[in-house]
Design goal:
globular; five-stranded mixed sheet; 2 domains; mainly alpha; 22 helices
Length: about 500
């Protein structure tokens, strides 16, 4: 840490801006090496990039999306009935520039810009402490939840989490219009983000309870967020479902069958609810599930999460995030993998800044920022080597391994064959990893599908043949090769393209 304070004395303040941009540039290359390389090497999936790609293709053409990839929607129900994510429509014009990379580019840029907001927060909340701002920026970009999110497609909660530092910045700058606009962007990023925003703004109000102007603005946005959440869940999403679909994502059987029951359980059984935050509550033994929650808690604490316990306001901000993670029936949500930890980061960063403001003497604040940076780097590095379920491949995130940069089949040949043999307007059922780059059409399905299609595009992939096992996929391809219904147009490089015979 002494080195950083020596740098502070030697370098003029303006140089730190260059250092910050250099740090952002290095991390931008790292993130791109995960996200863009995975997509280039056909290592992204129907769930969820394929679903979102079909949606932005429709939005770019000024149409609603009635998604065909999700069997539950079946091309008849608006995709907003699944997740309420209208914010991605704002970025759909970029489809005309970036094509099926669009949302990955947006996610990449959002994280980099989120770091920029954290840099400005450190500089403005801790004036003259450029070294601490640089350390805080490094800690932010090193957080394990960023790497795990980039390793698995695109998700709109990443955008929401990156709007939050800008929301905090607008709050402290007293830019009230920007504060409310960013709040609405966050709430309309995903239905559960509207609920999180209620807790974020209540936390801001609690943290600045004696400052009436700040407190009142935070409470106003909290009320608006609560209203937005109710409208989304009770009016907008049911309206888009047109009475054909119940909400698909409330899977919390330990708490009850619905949101009201879950809230009552937490209120009337707080000790049991607290226990569920740490223990495997699903039946049956599992090496993956046992201890998984503790692993996530450990990474969180090492990455600076301990700072959120220094004030009740920050604990309040994270309550819905921990609840949606640890109470879930899906053990992947308990984990540090996928996109399920990214919302923790902006609250940790703010807690770090406020701790440094409160304890400037004796180096306590500076030490906290240093520990945040060091711990975030350590936990981010450690998370790269943790045991993962099959759905989360080490090859997707470990850019230092040759396997990250290569595939067992010639990627360029596969892409060329898809372009040459499948018309842009044809209906297709495809292997999950092929769907994201074929999704820009009205009829695209994840194989196997019961829907009649003109083409099939299947690829033998030892890394991820989801949803079929390698054996079932091989059996299916063999049957298609011998079927009088299908004509095989292409059969090499692990790729099989079939066209339906109509005679």
């Amino acid at each position: 840490m002494r080195l950083f304070f020596t740098i502070r004395k030697v370098l003029p303040s303006s140089w730190f801006e260059g250092l910050a941009l250099g740090v952002a540039g290095l991390f931008s290359l790292w993130y791109a090496s995960i996200s863009f390389i995975n997509h280039h090497l056909i290592r992204t999936f129907a769930y969820d990039l394929g679903i979102k790609n079909q949606a932005i293709w429709d939005y770019a053409h000024f149409r609603w999306n009635y998604n065909t990839i999700m069997a539950e929607l079946n091309g008849e129900i608006n995709v907003l009935a699944n997740h309420f994510e209208p914010v991605i429509a704002l970025f759909s014009p970029l489809y005309w520039i970036f094509g099926h990379y669009t949302l990955l580019v947006v996610q990449w840029a959002a994280v980099l810009l989120g770091g920029r907001a954290v840099w400005l927060l450190f500089k403005e909340r801790l004036p003259g402490k450029n070294t601490l701002a640089l350390l805080g920026l490094i800690g932010f970009y090193s957080f394990f939840g960023i790497f795990s999110a980039f390793a698995f497609d695109f998700h709109s909660n990443v955008l929401a989490a990156m709007f939050v530092p800008w929301l905090f910045l607008a709050f402290y700058r007293k830019q009230h219009f920007a504060f409310f606009a960013l709040g609405l962007l966050t709430a309309f990023s995903k239905e559960n983000m509207a609920l999180w925003l209620v807790f974020l703004t209540l936390g801001l109000a609690l943290n600045h309870f004696k400052e009436s102007q700040l407190r009142n603005k935070a409470l106003q946005l909290a009320g608006l967020s609560a209203l937005s959440f109710l409208l989304i869940m009770k009016v907008f999403m049911p309206g888009f479902a047109n009475g054909q679909l119940e909400y698909l994502h409330f899977k919390y059987t330990a708490l009850g069958p619905d949101m009201g029951s879950a809230l009552a359980f937490v209120i009337w059984h707080p000790i049991e609810a607290l226990r569920l935050l740490f223990e495997n509550h699903l039946p049956g033994p599992s090496m993956y599930r046992d201890g998984l929650k503790w692993s996530t808690w450990a990474l969180f604490l090492v990455a600076g999460g301990w700072l959120t316990f220094t004030r009740p306001a920050f604990v309040l901000m994270l309550l819905p995030i921990w609840g949606q993670k640890m109470f879930s029936d899906d053990p992947n949500k308990w984990s540090p993998f996928f996109q399920y930890s990214i919302e923790l980061l902006p609250v940790i960063a703010l807690a770090c800044i406020e701790f440094a403001r409160r304890f400037p003497r004796f180096g306590l604040g500076a030490s906290a920022v240093f520990l945040f940076a060091l711990g975030s780097c350590a936990s981010g590095y450690h998370s790269l080597f943790m045991y993962r379920p099959q759905a989360y491949m080490p090859e997707a995130i470990q850019i230092f391994r040759p396997a990250h940069w290569h595939r067992e089949f010639p990627v360029s040949n596969v892409k060329l064959a898809l372009n040459q043999h499948i018309p842009e307007t044809a209906s297709v059922a495809a292997s999950s990893i092929l769907v994201p780059r074929l999704a820009m059409r009205s009829q695209i399905f994840c194989y196997p599908s019961a829907q009649p299609t003109q083409y099939l595009a299947l690829i033998k992939d030892s890394e991820k043949p989801y949803p079929l096992s390698p054996r079932l996929l091989n059996d299916s391809i063999s049957q298609l090769l011998n079927s009088p219904t299908w004509e095989c147009l292409y059969k090499q490089d692990s790729l099989f393209i079939f066209r339906r015979r109509f005679n």
